């Protein structure tokens, strides 16, 4: 009989000390949730008001391993790497335009350039908003890009004639993918002198249009106005970086707290602002091409993308049948991870069964008791495989609920909640059901988690507001 690992003999969860990261795009001082959580979990001794605290890593990845209070590495206690990495992100300004490689490409990049790509694993990831969160995800519809090329001559000047012609003539899926690749490639490889000059001209025009002399704002469709304002905002954050024009070809999303989206491998995205929890396969591979002072690998990024149109579906999760509205699960179509959000109101008790796989918990909001011990926002824990069920209790006199995020290996791969609209993400969109509402994607409202997803919906109901074909 195999020997039971020592950590499995623990009777409850094990407190952790996560790894805190500060990057230029983080949120400074105590305004950052990452800073507050890091202070509470003893990851840092004090909060520097000038430091942009960006990420809190909870897991076994060697670039940011979590430790026990005793100083032991979590990996040494578990005996192996966890298949996932759990993070809290606080973004004060945009992250880079990037994508994450699939397993085959990750292995090749790691072999060719281990300094830039330290992992040979893929990195699909899921983001769940803690605050209103802005992100650019996936390519716009080809009709929208064609419209924006005509509307913004400065953007058009950064594209090759071949790319523009392909965009205007694209009809079938193959020609549309080819057009997207030509647009992205020619834009990213545009001569820096040309792109800088046209970015400056574009900003002058957009700033004038946003002034009091501009026509009434309702004379311009909201999506066009939002697109222009996003360009101005990114240009302010990254002066002189032509990547500020990315909203002209990437979808710009705003999601509400509790909503999430899944990013498959080889799909372009750039988080813009807000705070999220993020779960991903255990990897730190990122291929970047803009809005960053870090290493840019334009050639590999251009080559690796799927050039699918449309952004990710906004997922509101699904209630767990055993616990009702107290637990919402967010399940992506990948085996490495899923996330449970536990919600315990004042005066309530939640007994949660061990899923049978190692888990990571973090207290997000409120305070209460976990197996009889006081817990507060920012504290994180490791839940061994064979430990008993956990008891969460919130006293009746508390003024708000306690919210807990739990990540572990995907136990519901047969029933994912996170899917990708239309052909976005390729194979990850197969064998999935349709979410109850596309409205958050269009910025028109929220979805409500439900026990069952709709089995069918009229063709086109998932399409976000598209421009008529030109």
TrEMBL record:
Organism equals Cylindrotheca closterium
Q: Which UniProt keywords apply?
A: Isomerase, Metal-binding, Zinc
Q: Which family does it belong to?
A: Belongs to the mannose-6-phosphate isomerase type 1 family.
**Which superkingdom is the protein from?**
Eukaryota
* Enzyme Commission (EC) number: 5.3.1.8
Stored InterPro entries: Man6P_Isoase-1, Mannose-6-P_Isomerase, Pmannose_isomerase-type1_CS, PMI_typeI_cat, PMI_typeI_hel, RmlC-like_jellyroll, RmlC_Cupin_sf
**For this protein, what reaction is catalysed?**
D-mannose 6-phosphate = D-fructose 6-phosphate
Give the protein's recorded name. Answer: mannose-6-phosphate isomerase
Q: Which Pfam families match?
A: PMI_typeI_cat (PF20511), PMI_typeI_hel (PF20512)
GO BP annotation list = carbohydrate metabolic process; GDP-mannose biosynthetic process
Where in the numbering of this chain does the Phosphomannose isomerase type I helical insertion domain appear? 166-250
Q: In which pathway does it act?
A: Nucleotide-sugar biosynthesis; GDP-alpha-D-mannose biosynthesis; alpha-D-mannose 1-phosphate from D-fructose 6-phosphate: step 1/2
Domain Phosphomannose isomerase type I catalytic residue range list: 15-141
